[in-house]
Specification:
The protein has 316 residues and is mainly beta. It has helices at 21-37, 301-309, and strands spanning 40-48, 51-62, 65-72, 79-83, 86-90, 96-101, 123-133, 136-145, 152-158, 164-170, 176-187, 204-207, 222-224, 232-239, 248-254, 259-266, 274-278, 281-288, 291-297, 311-313.
Length: 316
């Protein structure tokens, strides 16, 4: 499952005071604007199950657009750069860089869509109380799912700038399954552009968009018949995955916040069907017409299973 990802990607307020839906969605838009437009540097911690990772991010906005650098502080040295719509992942071999588009790669604190209004179909937004994160006052915003096909989310936004300082994904029982949280952050300070400039010298550049085709050009005959409400197809392409030997069909569905990927590839060996999970991520695998169908996303098990069971193939 490692090759399906390029890299990586609590204070609970007691007695929350709920505000209006419009106020909450307005705060979410403020968060989105801040994460793209502000300069900031900081160290944040990511927690999933018993796994903890620490990363450092540097984000610069100038006349040429957005530039960001993400460094893993634990384990194997890993770096990721964002240059506007492109994401560059520097692989641990120190020889390879993978170039991909950022629409499917949200680097904390960029977790929300640009158009917050798209979330209203599937979520109810509420304002909670206030708390402190990394020494700064924050406003808590809660996104409650309207059905069982997606998780709930909580966001802690800096009250002065709107920058997202903490985010959590929670199940129906209020259990937090994924968490991001700044432990230290500086907002609005000058940043040297050299700090976010990737060095490609001596490295092989692999473009993930190579081999991609128009939506109608994935292998004919494949269809997904039962997508949960609120999820819409945002891409379908034939693409080469990192570490893969042949292009695979890749279809992505999203409700604006949660994304589900469907990978379809030929298989000559035995496929182990079933469901697995790690934190908020669920993976469902089955065989259809001598192909392995793998559905994965940070959504409840019922979502990946429903989508996976509805994948069919027709030779007509």
């Amino acid at each position: 499952m490692k090759r399906f990802a390029c890299a990586l990607v609590l204070v609970v307020c007691s007695g929350p005071i709920w505000a209006t839906d419009m106020d909450a969605f307005g705060w979410l838009q403020k968060i989105t604007n801040a994460t793209h437009r502000l300069n900031y540097t900081g160290t944040f911690v990511y927690q999933r199950d018993n796994r903890v990772e620490t990363s450092r991010i540097t984000h610069l906005m100038d006349e040429t657009g957005e530039h960001a650098k993400l460094e893993a502080m634990d384990g194997t040295l890993r770096e990721m750069y964002r240059v506007n719509d492109d994401v560059l992942c520097f692989m641990p071999d120190n020889k390879t860089v993978v170039l991909d588009k950022s629409r499917a790669k949200k680097i904390f604190p960029v977790t929300l869509p640009d158009q917050i209004s798209t979330l209203k179909e599937s979520y109810v937004a509420k304002l909670g109380g206030q708390s402190r994160v990394a020494g700064r006052d924050t406003q808590i915003v809660v996104l409650e799912p309207k059905d069982r096909y997606r998780y709930g989310h909580r966001f802690w936004a800096d009250t002065k700038t709107g920058l997202l300082l903490r985010a959590g994904v929670w199940r129906e029982n209020e259990e937090m399954v994924d968490r991001f949280s700044f432990s230290q952050v500086a907002i609005g300070t000058p940043i040297d552009k050299a700090a976010v400039k990737p060095n490609l010298a001596g490295r092989k550049l692999i473009r993930n968009e190579e081999g991609k085709s128009a939506d109608s050009d994935i292998d004919p005959g494949w269809s997904v018949g039962a997508v949960p409400p609120g999820f819409k197809q945002i891409s379908a392409m034939k693409r080469m995955l990192p570490g893969g030997k042949a292009p695979v069909n890749h279809i992505v569905f999203s409700d604006g916040l949660a994304a589900v990927s469907v990978f379809i590839e030929t298989t000559a060996g035995k496929v182990e069907p079933g469901l697995s999970h790690r934190g908020a991520l669920h993976v469902y695998t089955r065989t259809v017409a001598d192909h392995e169908v793998k559905v994965l996303g940070e959504v409840p098990a019922v979502t990946v299973r429903q989508i996976g069971d509805s994948v069919t193939y027709s030779s007509r």
